[in-house]
# Entry
Amino acid sequence: MHKARVMIDGYNLALEEGTGISTYSRNLSFTLKELGSDVDVLYGTRRSPRNELMREIAFFDPNVGRPNLRDRFIYELRMLGSVPLMSATATQIPFTDTVIKDAYKSRLPRADALWNIPHVFARSYKLFDLAGKFFTVKMPSKPQIAHWTYPLPLKLQGARNIYTIHDLVPLRLPYTTLDVKRRYFKLMKALASRADHIVTVSETSKRDIVNILGIPEERVTNTYQAVDIPAKYANKPVDLVKQEVEGTFNLKYKGYMLFFGAIEPKKNVARLIEGFLGSGVDIPLVIVGKLGWKSEQELKLLNEDVISYLEQVDKLMVTRRRIHRIDYASFPLLVSLIRGAKAVMFPSLYEGFGLPALEAMQLGTPVLSSTGGSMPEVCGDAALLVDPYDPRAIAEGIRALDTNQILREELSRKGVARAAVFSTGAYAARLDELYKRLESEKGILARLQRA
# Structure
């Protein structure tokens, strides 16, 4: 097992809400600890006060008081000037019993130490934009490996720097993201030439990285991702799941279809809604997710006539909801919503990995997904795959899952087995092999330099 000290970034480990990449980052920290590594996590919060107590408080709430005016003036000058700061040394965030952290247990990574450089991620982009250079991070703990969980113009001094490129969606589907494409492509090409290694999460993404960025295949490793839902949520008694679904959301257990994720063009929610409305099924579609870029276009079919309708039941006119939209559900409630759904809908246009589909499969819920991106590779024959650009194909898939119990049972059984391929143990083995290979290459390089 790998025993080296490894630093990962906290770029996507925001305390407020999670993303797919924040899940990747947290799972990476847990897996590294299981492998026996010492783990450092670098954050870029707004404040890093000199007083240790205030520094700990500032990690959870930056409103600790007025910033030091001299430090603020220097920072603004460097950010606005033509030659921004090019390096900085991280300051450790104390973790004592003073701040009660129970509310954040599920969101924090597993780490031996947390570090901070104020605004480090924004500063790195500023430097890259102005000078084409990577911001240099210095750390007293001297990690041997920096595993950046996102393409960032940062490097850790004295370490092997590896970068995770989850996908190249901004280049493959440029109309679905807000990235500045010229800067994005420039950064990808810089990573291609400067990284000690590139990590990705599927063979589909690896093929894109090799072909589009021109990186030699041996410098890109697909580790996939780990699918890991805690047993206390995954194995919760069915009666409790029913109570949560029915009591919290007024939904019938196994009486709704579910989509969960960001509401943005890549996720294909507009065609999902169109397909659902055209399917004629008699159960509601539940959409759980924050409004993202172009969400108003994705939800343009939702109006009062579509969301609800009147139906005669026992000579009474009863309002029925066809589509429910839930802005937020805590992780335990989301797991119950997934388990309580008749099927999960995930007809994404393109994914580097597609974690929501596998999370549903792990919980035994049948999945409708797409033929786009990595989904056929990741789901195999354990999901119903449809053309994501064809609302009629989506409608036919929804009808099949609604009416065919044998199909649902088959997909549920296959889904659980397929999700096991992406277990934490399998992920740890792939990660361990990669790190050992990098350490071996470093040793060979050092011997060549001495010769």
